[in-house]
Structures are given as C-alpha cells and as structure tokens.
Design goal:
Oligomer: single chain
Organism: Algibacter pectinivorans
Order of helices and strands: HHEHEHHHEEEEHEHHEHEEHHEEEEHH
Protein name: Arylsulfatase A
Strand order of the largest sheet: 6-5-4-3-7-1-8-9-2-10
Family: Belongs to the sulfatase family.
Keywords: Hydrolase
Pfam families: Sulfatase
Helix content: 25-40%
Number of strands: 14
Radius of gyration: 24 Å
CATH topology of the domain at 39-375: Alkaline Phosphatase, subunit A
C-alpha cells in the first residue's frame, strides 16, 4: 500500500509540474522569453567606418534603418577596432583578448581551437548558435570548406572564409562540403536565411546567438547595384577637408560604390530588425550593429581601401547596442571608447553569463545600462606587423580616449591629436610646449595599457619569428592564394619554443 500511495503522490506532483510547464509555454512569445536568457543578434559589417551613416551626421549617405535603430539603442560614438583589419578584429571579438595575446595580428591566420570563443561560451550556457557570411578566422584558404570542428562553437553554418564577390558570393551550407553560391546580392541573401532561422527558433526553449557577418561595404565598390549607385553621383559627394588633392577624384569615385553598398546593407539589416519586431522578441534580445574596421578613403594622403592606420578613418567603427530592459536609455550617447576585446565580456554581462577569467576586455554592462556621455576610458589600438598595402608603414601602439589620440612607433611618439578641437586630425600636437603635460599623461596611459596585457612592443620581425609566420616575398602577407593551387600552408599562433 505504501508503494501505491507513493506512486500516486509522485504522479500528482508530475501532473502539477507538467501543467505549470504547459501553462508557461502557452503564453505569447514576449511572456515566455522573459524566463530565458536573452537572445543575441550580432551584425558585423566589413570596412564600414563610423562616419558613413546618416545618424552620425553624414550629409550624403542614406541609412534610414540604422538611423531609426540608433534612436532605439545606445550609441558608442568612439568605438574603435583594436587592430583595424579583418582577421585580428574578428579574433579579438570572439575571444575578448588582444592580438598580441592570441598571436592573431595579421590576416589569414587560423584561430587555434584551444582558444575559448564567444559561441563556445554561449553554447555551454544552453544557446543555439548560428553564423552567416564572412568568417576569416580559419587560415586554410579563402575558398576551402570549414568542417564543424573548426567553427569555434557555431552549429548552424552558412558561411565562407572570405569573398567579396557580392553578386555571386560563395558559401558552404552546414556540413555539405560542396561549395554553393547565394542567388542574389549577398547581404540580401544572407539576411533572408538569417530571418528564417530566427523565425524557426524564436519559440524555442533555448535562446540563440545569431552572428550575421556581412562583407559590405568593403571594396570592390564598382559591383554595387546600379539603383543604389544612382543615388550617389560622384560629383555631388562631400569630401572631408583631410582628403588630399591627389585623391579627391578617386575618393569620390569609390565613395559612390561605398555608399551604395552601405545603403543596400542598411536595407538588408532593416529586414532583420523588422523580423525581430514582428516576432515580438525585441524585449529579450541583445542586438549589436558594428564593423571590423574603417576605411581611409584618401584622408591624410592615404589611398582608398587602406586601413591598419591609427587615424580615426581607419580605427573608428559604428557600435549600436540594444538590450532587454532598455527604456530611457534609448538614443543615449556614450563618448567613452569601447574597444574590440570589451565587446564579448559586455555581451556576457548583459546575458548574465559568468565571464571567463582569461578574457582581457572590460565588462561595460554598467555603462551600457547607465549611459554617461561625460564618462571616459582608454582604448588600446595596435599594428603589430604591418602587411600587404601597409607593409612599409611602421608598427605602432596607440590609445584613443573620448578626446585624444596618441600613438608611438618604434621611433618614438608619432601622433597626438585633440579630436574635440580637431575632428579631422590635421594638427599634430607632438612637441608643442603648451601640450607637454597632456602628452606625458597620454604616454603614461599608453604604457599602462601595454603593461596590463604584457605587450613589450617589439619589432615586426620579432613577432613574425616568435610565431613562425612567413610572408610571401612579392606580396608581403600570409600567402592565402597558394591554397587555390594546392600549395597552401596553415599558419597559426603557436609560439616557437
């Protein structure tokens, strides 16, 4: 009899608990997701500098969807790329570590599987993980298939290492090793698939991390769709005063396609934002819009397409973030810099997930939830081993505060700008007696940031030798193109002992 009574009691408890569970699930999406950790939608674009947006005050470019999103999110006006070039930024973003710590400081390296990454952390917390678009962290050639064990924790996969053929963009569909091609302009194709995934997973018990990596507005710019290029007659476009005479015509020509890609990409991103609203999951979703680096576009006598430099055109990127519970903070401005390694710990903080101890970035959750336009921080920017078009440039370490930029090369101080008084960075203050005290203070702050991460700031050759990296002799970069003829060698940051 005791056994029977105990069984009946257990059955009653089971039914009660089961009924409670069903009651919770019957509620609408907005009610149900309140008990889950927040979804994360991270939208990463390529080479989209911070000033190429309507909400940033650009008089020419049309970005209505992101302009509207800026009013619904927190805007970091001085977001900087820790190293303004593709692979290093992406590695720092996914690991929360600096390029000198991971060894990921040039393009086309393989991010070691030993590194703990964004998707692996979220997946361990019960998240579904998905990735679309440009990856640029595999180091096994730009067109080769990336198997599941090299996807750093992302399960759903519609991606490729690297391509900028926006009209016939290749990709791999999850575990199918046969290369495929998006059937339309790649930003539109990618967001359609992402929206389908988000729709299918919106009602899941598990939250999702959806990482949407769109390769525009990176060059080539001439393959932008005509209807968007027609919006931007080159002769009508405004150039900043720091664009030199030599590059004015070329810059306007490139800006036409650059802005065309930006407007089309804004339209694509708008469909993602609209889908999240339609599904009523905005109240439990963290949304980020940003880019990996900027674009010089003729400023300071540096030709279009170039990055890796310490000027704002190269290092500053857009960064808008919306999060569950955002209310009076909508449209708030934060002038304190956010740096690439800060992003992962801040996302984890907003997601109520414990931050791993070896992450080097700072959790800025408190600042994001309590925006203060007067707050300030020091963001470290670096060029460890200049390569490709910047091979002849000197390595540097720099800091960006809300007001100042200060940089050193191995030859000594190289840049000192008051960005509030001189937003186009045309008046280098180095050595001016009236700014001597501020320069010394900035130099001490730079030394402090380097000491924090154990960065000795040595020569390019030192770092290349340390990690046994080899550049091509004719094209001073990791020779990723050799994989296309079966001769490629994977280069990965495993220090030489």
């Amino acid at each position: 009899m005791k056994i029977i009574k105990k069984s009946v009691s257990l059955l009653v408890v089971f039914l009660v608990l089961g009924g409670c569970k069903r009651k919770e699930i019957k509620g609408n999406i907005g009610d149900r997701v309140a008990v889950k950790k927040p979804n994360v939608v991270y939208i990463l674009t390529d080479q989209w500098r911070s000033t190429a947006l309507g909400y940033a005050g650009n008089p020419d470019v049309k970005t209505p969807n992101l302009d509207a999103f800026a009013k619904e999110s927190v805007n970091f006006t001085n977001a900087v790329s820790v190293m303004p070039v593709c692979t290093p930024h992406r590695a720092a973003l996914l690991t929360g570590k600096f390029p000198t710590t991971t060894g990921m400081f040039v393009n086309d390296l393989y991010l070691p599987s030993e590194e703990l990454t964004m998707a692996e952390i979220y997946k361990a917390e019960g998240y579904n993980t998905a990735y679309w678009g440009k990856w640029h962290l595999d180091g096994h050639g730009r067109l080769n298939y990336i198997p599941k064990e090299r996807r750093q924790g992302f399960d759903y996969w519609k991606a490729l290492e690297c391509s900028h053929n926006y009209t016939k963009m290749p990709y791999y569909d999850n575990n199918n090793p046969e290369i495929k091609y998006w059937k339309e302009y790649s930003p539109f194709a990618i967001v359609k698939d992402a929206n389908q995934y988000i729709t299918e997973h919106a009602k899941d018990d598990k939250p999702f991390l959806a990482f949407i990596s769109i390769a525009t507005p990176h060059f080539p710019h001439d393959n932008a769709q005509k209807k968007y290029k027609d919006l931007y007659p080159p002769e009508s476009l405004t150039l900043n005063p720091n664009v030199t005479e030599k590059f004015k015509n070329k810059s306007r020509e490139e800006l036409q396609g650059y802005y065309a890609h930006a407007t089309a990409t804004d339209e694509a991103i708008g469909t993602v934002l609209a889908k999240l609203k339609e599904l009523d999951i905005l109240n439990n979703t963290i949304i980020v819009f940003s880019a990996d680096h900027g674009e010089m576009m003729g400023a300071h006598d540096v030709r279009p397409f170039q990055k890796q430099r310490a000027w704002d055109e190269s290092i500053k990127v857009p960064f808008l973030i919306s999060y569950p519970g955002i209310d009076k903070q909508k449209g708030a401005i934060i002038n304190a810099p956010i740096n690439t390694p800060d992003i992962l710990p801040s996302l984890l903080g907003l997601s109520n997930i414990k931050i791993p101890q070896n992450i080097e970035g700072e959790n800025l959750t408190a600042l994001i939830k309590n925006p203060d336009s007067s707050a300030d921080r020091v963001a470290l920017v670096m060029s460890v081993a200049p390569f490709a078009g910047n091979y002849n440039s000197l390595p540097y370490r720099a800091i960006r505060t809300k007001q100042y930029t200060y940089a050193r090369t191995p030859n000594g101080p190289s840049m000192f700008f008051d960005n509030a008084a001189d937003p186009y960075q045309m008046n280098n203050l180095l050595g001016k007696p009236e700014f001597k005290a501020i320069q010394l203070e900035l130099d001490n702050k730079l030394n402090g940031k380097l000491a924090q991460i154990g960065d000795e700031f040595k020569s390019r050759d030192y770092y290349l030798k340390k990690y046994n990296y080899t550049f091509d002799k004719k094209k001073p970069a990791v020779p990723h193109w050799e994989f296309e003829v079966g001769k490629g060698v994977v280069q990965s940051p495993k220090p030489v002992k």
